[in-house]
Design goal:
The protein is 29% helix and 23% strand. It has a seven-stranded mixed sheet with strand order 6-7-8-9-10-11-12, covered by helices on one side. It has a six-stranded mixed sheet with strand order 13-14-15-16-17-18. Helix 8 links the parallel strand 16 and strand 17. It is globular, with a radius of gyration of 21 Å. It folds into two domains: 91 residues, Oxidized Rhodanese, domain 1 (3-Layer(aba) Sandwich), CATH 3.40.250; 248 residues, Ribonuclease Z/Hydroxyacylglutathione hydrolase-like (Metallo-beta-lactamase, Chain A). By secondary structure, it is of the alpha/beta class.
């Protein structure tokens, strides 16, 4: 049986190779979280003889951990079909990244999870914002560009994935700055921080969490989970949706929407419904978002009603993940983290 590594699969997808991504999980698993372009045919259906057209295509069988897909790959291989199974399944797919260059900022996109993190650069110095647990991605990119990482920032205490900020700061022996809700970081207050010849402006933008921060650098706003390109951050994770919906509304109206219309919004996540391309940043101007996001033009009452009624299912294991990010639980081994984080990000109002 042939295996394909997640990074190699991403390379083939980006190259436009003729693939049949065969997701053999049950429909409810597929609908919740899948690789874009994958075709869903459950194991039982394939065993009964159902199979999409695979002529001239390289088949990649996919499931959650690579077990069910491995059995199907063996079956199809015995039928003479060119097939491999995604090694580690969707859980391993969560560890694949690509990088988009915005000039003064790099956007690291965690492809499977939709998590976005950033490296702000100025005169050979860099700050990493919202790093995921795969800290080597940032270290290697900095080395490639001859950058010295001077500090690590978080925009808020994350609930859908384990922050890599603490590990990255310890590995590089640099400061970790966070919002006031993270007790072991150095708390950031509103104001300006020098980086090389530039300045990062720190703004308080509560709502998604009480201590959420936004970072302005030149013509970009790193908004964390306050504002996405497809929605706004949900205010209900461990909070009262109505009360915090009002706080989020005030943040959006009185802080974020007063930025220049030309500012590029760089969010903390991207949903599965947003088309993404390798190396292309996930971003939109504030002007575009004012036009395209109805939530930004609602009255306070309508906004609060909307966020309360449209709460999505909570992220998997978010209580445990939040406790880790608050320093109340030890950071697990990477394999356990992969399991805790498995599934889509659910930090936006649906």
């Amino acid at each position: 049986m042939q295996f394909i590594e997640p990074a190699e699969l991403k390379r083939k997808i980006d190259n436009g190779d003729n693939l049949l991504l065969l997701d053999v999980r049950e429909p409810f698993e597929y609908e919740e979280w899948h690789i874009a372009g994958a075709v869903n045919v459950p194991v039982g259906n394939i065993m009964a003889g159902e199979m999409p057209d695979a002529e001239g295509k390289e088949i990649v069988a996919i499931c959650m951990h690579g077990i069910r897909s491995g059995r199907i790959a063996q079956l199809l291989e015995n039928q003479g079909l060119p097939v491999s199974t995604l090694k580690g399944g969707m859980v391993a797919w969560n560890g694949v990244y690509d990088v988009a260059d915005l000039g003064n900022i790099l956007q690291f996109r965690r492809v499977g999870k939709g998590c976005l993190s950033y490296m702000i650069m100025s005169d050979g110095a860099a700050v990493v914002v919202d790093p995921a647990i795969d800290i080597n991605a940032y270290i290697e990119e900095a080395e490639k560009r001859n950058l010295k990482i001077a500090a690590v920032f978080d925009t808020h205490a994350h609930a859908d994935h384990v922050s890599g900020a603490r590990l990255l700061s310890e590995e590089l022996d640099v400061p970790y700055y966070s919002s006031s809700e993270v007790p072991f970081g150095k708390p950031l207050k509103e104001g300006k921080i020098n980086l090389g010849s530039g300045e990062i402006e720190v703004l308080s933008t509560p709502g998604h969490t009480p201590g959420s921060l936004t970072y302005l650098f030149q013509n970009c706003a790193i908004t964390g989970d306050t504002l996405f390109v497809e929605s706004v951050g949900r205010p209900d994770l461990g909070q009262n949706a109505g009360e915090n919906g009002k706080i989020l509304f005030n943040t959006l109206q009185n802080v974020v929407l007063r930025f220049s219309d030309e500012i590029k919004v760089l969010p903390g996540h991207v949903g599965q419904n947003v088309e993404t391309k390798a190396g292309m940043p996930v971003t939109a101007s504030l002007r575009e978002l004012k036009i395209n996001l109805p939530a930004l033009t609602m009255t306070s009452a309508d906004f609060i009603d909307w966020v309360v009624k449209n709460a999505a299912p909570k992220p998997a294991n978010f209580e445990f993940i939040k406790q880790i990010n608050l320093g109340k639980m030890q950071v697990p081994e990477l394999e356990e983290i992969r399991e805790l984080e498995a599934g889509p990000n659910r930090c936006a109002v649906a």
